[in-house]
């Protein structure tokens, strides 16, 4: 698989490009952009429809990545402005939160029962392009994005300068809006919304951006959601002053073996206002952000190729199935932010090297996700077509050599580049999967 930076014409234009929705409301459009930055464009799709009731919308945004399915419901509802705060809260909750619970529950049922009946357009002519996992092995995350309460929250609650919703897990179901007396209600507090419908995450005007810009890879985001769900359902969390405070607590607890976590299981945690501010002013946060800067070159490369896959503008192998391209790029995108740093550094070093003829290769040992990478730079000394074929052949050979060097790697993925002074920049990508690597392959490569 390969792609060109300089808009070289595709060798095949038979297939139409994949056209994604753009979001209906401003909040949906904002969600779209945030999710494309975090999950990248190949796996994030706004306004997904089903072929029922003249094309009924399933959810506001759907992310499918391997065994992970993330379903978003986005509601922008004005918070009522009467003198009765508890009544205003109940009305807002039923529109913004309760409405999303129903949408997400329906979306989950449809996705499990009819995974092949999802479409990107209301006329249901363009099928959802990413293959959904088997429902038995799928990990489904449901996320409510509820807008409209933050300003009233800041006004009513002293010290809530961001206006994010409070997390109190002891509030269950209808207790959010239908307590035995109105004095028992806790406006701006979210607990366990509908235990019978599975765990539901709630992000608001404040926490949506903070979360998606902090745990900003698919692996880091799903790790956070899974560990947060386990933390809350285990009864360890008593109170958190906001999602951002909970996120800071999670990010601050880190060890190299387990990554980020919510600490020991014996703890009962109360997280007060100010934890996030303390965290983002810490030397660790500043150092981490500085170290992460180079890692976004990895994101850029994935999205560059992914957009050519969506647009059907690949220079070579344009007749290859979408599923093959998606899986190769998914191998790259499953890397967490810290691993992307090291990969980006290695990639940059070989691409920036002074190089006039021949080629150079660098092999990277497998990381936590099990993938070994081969980076190649090759000087152009022949016509484009033959040059690309020669480069692909060399890249494939070095990927097979890497498989001998790292036999336990789950994947070998090779990426070839032009030299930095080439007038046209291009990339070729090839891969080897362990489940397709036979004993015969092993014997042949050892000869």
How does the SSE layout of this entry go?
Layout: E1 2-4, H1 26-39, E2 44-50, E3 56-65, E4 68-76, H2 85-113, E5 118-119, E6 139-147, H3 150-156, E7 166-172, E8 189-192, E9 200-204, H4 207-214, H5 218-233, E10 237-240, H6 243-252, E11 254-255, E12 259-260, E13 269-271, H7 275-280, H8 283-292, H9 296-311, H10 322-333, H11 337-351, E14 359-364, E15 371-378, H12 384-405, E16 411-418, E17 426-433, H13 439-446
Parallel strand pairs: 4-6, 6-9, 7-8, 10-13, 15-16
Antiparallel strand pairs: 1-17, 2-3, 2-5, 3-4, 11-12, 14-15, 16-17
Describe the structure.
- With 447 residues, this protein is an alpha/beta fold.
- It has two domains: 17-280, Restriction Endonuclease (3-Layer(aba) Sandwich); 294-446, no CATH class.
- It is 39% helix and 22% strand.
- It contains 13 helices and 17 strands.
- It has a six-stranded mixed beta sheet, with helices on both faces. A five-stranded mixed beta sheet has the order 1-17-16-15-14, sandwiched between helices.
- A hairpin with a 6-residue loop joins strand 14 (359-364) and strand 15.
- Helix 1 runs parallel beside helix 4 (207-214), helix 9 (296-311) runs antiparallel to helix 10 (322-333) and helix 9 (296-311) crosses helix 11.
- It starts with a strand and ends with a helix.
- Mean pLDDT is 89; it is low at 1-14.
């Amino acid at each position: 698989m390969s792609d060109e930076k300089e808009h070289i014409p595709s060798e095949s234009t038979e297939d139409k490009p994949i056209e994604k929705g753009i979001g209906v409301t401003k909040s949906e459009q904002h969600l779209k952009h945030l999710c494309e930055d975090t999950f990248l464009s190949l796996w994030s799709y706004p306004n997904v429809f089903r072929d029922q009731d003249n094309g009924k919308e399933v959810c506001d945004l759907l992310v499918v990545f391997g065994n992970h399915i993330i379903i978003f419901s986005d509601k922008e509802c004005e918070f009522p402005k009467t003198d009765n705060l508890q009544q205003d809260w109940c009305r807002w909750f039923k529109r913004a939160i309760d409405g999303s619970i129903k949408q997400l529950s329906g979306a989950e049922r449809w996705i499990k029962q009819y995974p092949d009946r999802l479409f990107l357009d209301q006329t249901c002519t363009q099928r959802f392009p990413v293959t959904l996992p088997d429902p038995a092995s799928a990990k489904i995350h449901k996320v409510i994005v509820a807008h409209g309460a933050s300003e009233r929250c800041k006004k009513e609650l002293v010290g809530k300068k961001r206006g994010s919703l409070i997390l109190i897990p002891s509030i269950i179901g209808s207790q959010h809006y239908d307590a035995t007396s109105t004095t028992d209600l806790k406006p701006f507090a979210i607990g366990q919304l509908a235990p019978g419908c599975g765990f539901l995450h709630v992000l608001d005007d404040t926490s949506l951006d903070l979360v998606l810009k902090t745990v900003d890879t698919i692996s880091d985001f799903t790790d956070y959601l899974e560990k947060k769900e386990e933390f809350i359902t285990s009864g360890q969390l008593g109170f958190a002053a906001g999602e951002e405070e909970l996120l800071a607590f999670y990010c601050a607890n880190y060890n190299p073996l387990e990554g980020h976590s919510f600490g020991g299981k014996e703890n009962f945690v109360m997280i007060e206002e100010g934890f996030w501010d303390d965290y983002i002013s810490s030397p660790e946060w500043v150092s981490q952000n500085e170290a992460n800067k180079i890692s976004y070159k990895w994101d850029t490369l994935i999205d560059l190729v992914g957009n050519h896959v969506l647009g059907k503008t690949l220079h070579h192998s344009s007749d290859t199935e979408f599923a093959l391209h998606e899986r190769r790029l998914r191998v790259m995108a499953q890397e967490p932010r810290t691993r992307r740093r090291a990969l980006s550094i290695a990639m940059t070093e070989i691409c920036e090297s002074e190089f006039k003829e021949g080629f150079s290769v660098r092999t990277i040992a497998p990381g936590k996700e099990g993938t070994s990478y081969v980076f190649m730079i090759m000087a152009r000394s022949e016509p484009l077509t033959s040059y690309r074929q020669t480069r692909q052949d060399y890249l494939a050979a070095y990927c097979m050599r890497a498989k001998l060097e790292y036999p336990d790697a789950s994947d070998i993925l090779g990426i070839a580049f032009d030299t930095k002074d080439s007038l046209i920049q291009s990339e070729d990508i090839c891969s080897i999967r362990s489940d397709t690597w036979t004993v015969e392959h092993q014997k042949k490569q050892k000869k």
